[in-house]
Amino acid sequence: MSDAVVVLVGLSIGSYILKAAGPLLLGGRTLPPTLQSLAEFAPAAMLAALVVVSTLGDGSSISVDARAAGVVAAGVALWRRVPFIGVVIAASTATALARALAG
Amino acid sequence: MSCALQEPDRSRAIVRQAASISAAVAPFGLVFGVTAAHAGLRLVEAAGFSVFVFAGSAQFAAVETLGNGGAVLAAIASGCLLNLRSLAFGIVMAPSLKGPRWRRALQAQLMIDEATAVGLAQEGPHWRRRGYLAAGIGVFVTWNVATVVGFLALSSTGDLVERLGLDAAGPAAFLALVWPRLARSRQRACAAAGALVALALLPIAPPGIPIVASLAGVLAARWTWPHRERPASEGVDPTEPGRRS
After folding, report:
1. pLDDT higher for B174 or A77?
2. Nearest residue of B to residue A75 by CA position?
3. Which among B53, B199, B242 has the least Cβ separation from residue A11?
């Protein structure tokens, strides 16, 4: 089995357990405060980490390249309240331009 | 008391909300398809993620980690941790999802931000369930079609991805996902701490680890930012743009 299939199966099972625990098992109980706070704040930390890693990551090293220009453009677009598809177009265009100018 | 007059109105409102939120996820689905193709997945694997995982940011995180040569366990762990909030959603939605066990088991697959948001925007268990199902099914269909279209549109183009700058689409999607959360200061502190942890670990840790380790950012932010802004049960705002998980 390829790594992708292993991750697909593992993540499907893990995600489904998290999704179904409430409707199937927990009834009206609430989460312990620590888990609640983790569920509330983990996405911000991890998504920010994903921005960093997907922008600057190059295997196991840091590389500031054309993708960084794209992310800056995406930030400006989000700040200007551009809809998502416009954010992606801005990011791609900036990256393509930076690459064309550099190369 | 008769609800006969209200009923069509409520149904229409639910359909309207579900339709607009479903349309809003289409671009994310396209980008997921592109990202999966770029990370070297096969079409059936990319589609499998959208059908069986069916949780946007978790799918992106896992595929990003895979594409970067990260460990299988790191990819699964980062996806599951991003999905922790569906546990909280499930607990909030549970009272509205009545019915036989098999039906609740099927409905639970739709436990994503959008379905929960539209569900909780309605009043009473009956309408909450209808809203949840309408948005959940709508997003499920759109998300999966968009994944396949995005994959097919770009899988055969080779270096076109880089020439068009589409390798920046993934990072832009992550930024768009985290953006609405940055309105609150404690969320901002967590995001900044998570980004710093990832940046520090990126050159030294194996791929995938910086993302999982960014959870330490939550603890660091809690430690340096001790006051609570409000109770931890996260409100879900259906009008919030670009909120995909």
Report:
1. A77
2. B175
3. B53
Element (H, E) at A61: strand A61-62
R_g (Cα) of chain A, nearest Å: 19
Q: Cβ–Cβ of A88/B109 closer than 8 Å?
A: no
Token pair belonging to B123: 């009043």
Euclidean distance between CA atoms B110 and B132, whole angstroms: 8
Q: How far apart are CA B236 and CA B117, in angstroms?
A: 5
A34 interface with B at CB cutoff 8 Å? no
In whole angstroms, give the CA distance from residue B85 to residue B108.
13
Name A62's bridge partners.
A57
What is the predicted pLDDT for the residue at B85? 81
ipTM of the complex in this document: 0.88
Q: Is A64 on the interface with B (CB under 8 A)?
A: no
Residues in A closer than 8 angstroms to B147, CB to CB, are: none
With an 8 Å Cβ cutoff, is A72 touching chain B? no
pLDDT at B4: 47
- The mean pLDDT of B155-167, rounded to a whole number, is 74
Distances in Å between the alpha carbon of A12 and those of B62, B101, B107? 11, 20, 15
pTM to 2 decimal places: 0.78
Fill in the amino acid letter for A82.
V
